[in-house]
Amino acid sequence: MPRPDTAFLFDLxxxxxxxxxxxxxxxxxxxxxxxxxxxxxxxxxxxxMSGGLFTNILLRETxxxxxxxxxxxxxxxxxxxxxxxAGEGAIRPLPGARELLAYLTEQQLPWAVATSGRMETxxxxxxxxxxxxxxxxxxxxDQVRFAKPDPDLFLAAAERLGVDIHDALIIGxxxxxxxxxxxxxGLGVGLLSGGYGAEELQSAGAFRVYEDPADLLLHIxxxxxxx
Length: 227
Description:
By secondary structure, the chain is α/β, with parallel strands linked by helices.
C-alpha cells in the first residue's frame, strides 16, 4: 500500500478537467476581440503558464504594444469567453479524475489542487470535478506572487497540506507544470491529456508520463511509495 506521506499536487486544466481547448478558444476570442491576430496552435503552446506571463508573451510575439490596460482587458475578455463555455456544460472531468481523487482520499493520501487560473475561471472546473475548495486545499493564481513556470503554486499547495515538497508528486499536463515541479524540487508526473507529447514532458522533467488520470490510477503503484 502507498505510504501516507506521499502527497499529490495536481494541476487542474488538462490534468483533472478536460478544459485546455476551451481555454485556447477563449483566448482566441479575447485576442480577436482586441484586434490581435494569432494562430490557435500558438495559443495552445502557452496554455499552462500564468495568465499575465501568457498575455505578455503573446503580445510580444505579435509585435503589438503591451500596456497594463490591454493585458487587463484580455484577461477579462478571456474570463468572459471561458465562462460562457462553462455555462454551456462544455467543461467535464477527464476520464478517471474523480476515481483517482476518491482513491487517494480513501487511502488517506494527501492531495491538493494548484492552478495558474484565477478562481473566476477555476470555480467552474472545480464544480465540474466535484471538488469543494472549502474542504480541499486549492491554490489559484490569486493567492501567489508568481504562477507557472515558477514554483510558487506547488510550494503553497504543499504548505497548505503540511507536507515537505520533496515528498510530493506534482501532476500536470504541460511543460510549464514540469518546469515548475523541477524548480520546486518535487517529482513531476506528466499526463498527455492536455495535448503535449510524452517526449516534451520528459524533456521538461517528467519522470513518468501517463495518458490521463485513469491511466495514472491504473499504474498508481509506479509513482506512490510502497510500504
